[in-house]
Amino acid sequence: MxxxxxxxxxxxxxxxGVDDGSKTLENSIKMLQQAAxxxxxxxxxxxxxxxxxxxxxxxxxxKNIVKRFNILKRSxxxxxxxxxxLLGSEIMFFRDMKKYLSLPYFSINNxxxxxxxxxxxxxxxxxxxxxxxxxxxxxYQPILAHPERISGLYKDRNKLVKLLKMGVLFQxxxxxxxxxxxxxxxxxxxxxxxxxxxHLLGSxxxxxxxxxxxxxxxxxxxxxxxxxxxxxxxxxxxxxxxxINGDHVEIDISDIKIRVKxxxxxLNKLINKIIKKAKKLL
Length: 282
Ligand SMILES: [Fe+2]
Description:
Elements: E1 8-12, H1 25-37, E2 42-45, E3 48-49, H2 57-78, E4 84-87, E5 90-92, E6 114-118, H3 128-137, E7 141-145, H4 157-165, E8 169-173, H5 174-177, H6 183-195, E9 200-202, H7 216-226, H8 232-245, H9 266-281
Parallel strand pairs: 1-2, 2-4, 3-5, 5-6, 6-7, 7-8, 8-9
This protein binds fe (ii) ion.
């Protein structure tokens, strides 16, 4: 096991009563105790954000989220639970999302740079590479939440490579690696591990039960035992710290080998014609 000073859980829903995660303050405290028992030292809260029905909805919601975040922070300090809480959001992609990204804590740690974006699990938007490119041009650096859970996305390997080349980070769920979302998602997670395409890990915890709770400890053990090339210090401490501070995270793409089927160019077509003719003459 690698020596880890800190373990950041980068994605979870522990702010009570604001999404489909924890419902009460008491439950959130219990969940954070569960996290501390697993050695997690820093927790990045990422409440869901969806397209608002009215323009005033999200600013009001953010006030409530920040208030509850501060109450939770105070409560765990009183209970001496040794966890540092940080705040961000998990934004379900929607067309006008750029308008809202400067709202307080839409970005991770309110740094106005890194944004955690999720796509529907049914499939990514067709033009997601262009969408991310636009966001980067606006000065944001997207992090893609649990790409291993998005149906059919891994088949678009070339598009994923394009994202990596644009500096987009991939956050994988601990439960996906452990098979808690089924064999298919686990197999895809293993591909991300094999490719070294994991930049951040998150439990995506919604409750206390094992499938939707904090499953970091078992995941760290699993990776340590089976994937010796994975730098856990990087994905559990160094990358999260850099993201929180709004610093650059270097993505190693030197090993990426893409098989791109390029359409035959005119010269190839001509060579093929000559070969065919030559074969007929023989
Ligand atoms: Fe989530």
